[in-house]
Amino acid sequence: MHHLLYLHGFLSSPTSVKAQATKNYFAKHHPEVTLHIPELSNFPSKVEAQLVELIENNPELLEGGLKVIGSSMGGYLSTFLIEKYSGKAVLINPAVRPYELLQQFIGPHVNPYSGEKFSIGLTDIDIIKALDIDALNNDKAYKVLLQTNDETLDYRLAAAKYALSDLVIEEGGDHSFVGYENHLPAIAEFLLD
């Protein structure tokens, strides 16, 4: 039995298109895999504790090494977890310096999936920055999928950070990663190898 963690991005949810495509793919093609898709807190100050608690309460996630799929902010958090616990991660259009991007998000928000109201402040940005990983311990622990027309993040930041990883750069696309489901067989092969 394999256990796999899927981390959605900022202002997203377990019901997002990519999360559901991942769930459906593994249910159909890899029924031996238990997929965990937690609803990450909208409050950046709570996410680290939430993830650590999730892993400590589900030690099976660490059996054979942690395996994570992370999208956008979920990719940033996945990198933090792999560097903390070791394992493997597939990152989809990952945020590399989200604490810079979040400067534009200071103030009130509503999660479009859950309807939850929350606010981002300067302390939240500091907390997210504290999770940053300057240098990767093992570049080969990552498979990174990037699309050049990502309208939210500059794909070149991730291309530079993960240059020695298994890097897939597609021309065009967008932040949602167009055609994600076509990569699921390769994602499964990388993580379950």
UniProtKB/TrEMBL annotation:
<dbReference type="InterPro" id="IPR008886">
    <property type="entry name" value="UPF0227/Esterase_YqiA"/>
</dbReference>
<protein>
    <submittedName>
        <fullName>Esterase YqiA</fullName>
    </submittedName>
</protein>
<dbReference type="InterPro" id="IPR029058">
    <property type="entry name" value="AB_hydrolase_fold"/>
</dbReference>
<dbReference type="Pfam" id="PF05728">
    <property type="entry name" value="UPF0227"/>
</dbReference>
